[in-house]
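so my prof wants the structure for this chain in the tokens format not the other one, which i didnt know existed until like an hour ago. anyway here's the sequence
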Amino acid sequence: MLRTHKLGEADRIVTMLSRQHGKIRAVAKGVRRTASKFGARLEPFMVADVQLFEGRSLDIITQAESLGSYGADITSDYSSYTAASVMVETADKITDDDGSLQQYLLLVGALRSLSRREHEPTLTLDSYLLRALSIAGWAPSFVDCAVTGAPGPHSAFVVQMGGVVADGVAPPGAPRLDPDTLRLLGALLSGDWDVADESSERSSNQASGVVAAYTQFHLERSLRSLQHVDRTRA
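here's what i got, hopefully its the right format
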């Protein structure tokens, strides 16, 4: 479940990302009443098996069975909640009606990891963002030059050029990343959690800035929930 909007006095419009049919918007009737049987299963961050009735403009949800009850565990922790909010907003913007099984599985796995507190929420978020962009065709380079392919390591990072670039093509004033930050970014992209979990707060903060800039550049719009992310590490 990505997001919900109120409709009338008791209904909600639910935007969902499905395994096989991309994004779906459907009406959940009566879920805002206290007696609703499946309202809690249709909240953001939940994973459910949903049965739909085809309507004229919007489908109608007739049944919902829980497959992953991640909502309560995520919303009980502010850092996890803010990270999850960015994830579902990104999934909403990066996927279309055709959808992608890879994007679906990536989001479900990230929400599950957040709910279980497997890693620092900001690390899970940044790893999700890098992988989601890669699936969408915007994989960044953190080792070899993104322009010439010259073997790295390189320290100049240019969002518009797709990652690190060699000194010969780096524009004047291009920001430079230290080796630890580049190592962390590579680990987040590849899923090397042994390296990511051992990273310093300084490297994590610098990496988060890079990931945020790269994400918003390729989405061509800002992520409203990103400004609320709690980057304080436990």
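also thought this was worth mentioning. The beta strands are 3-7, 11-17, 23-28, 47-53, 59-68, 156-158, 163-165.
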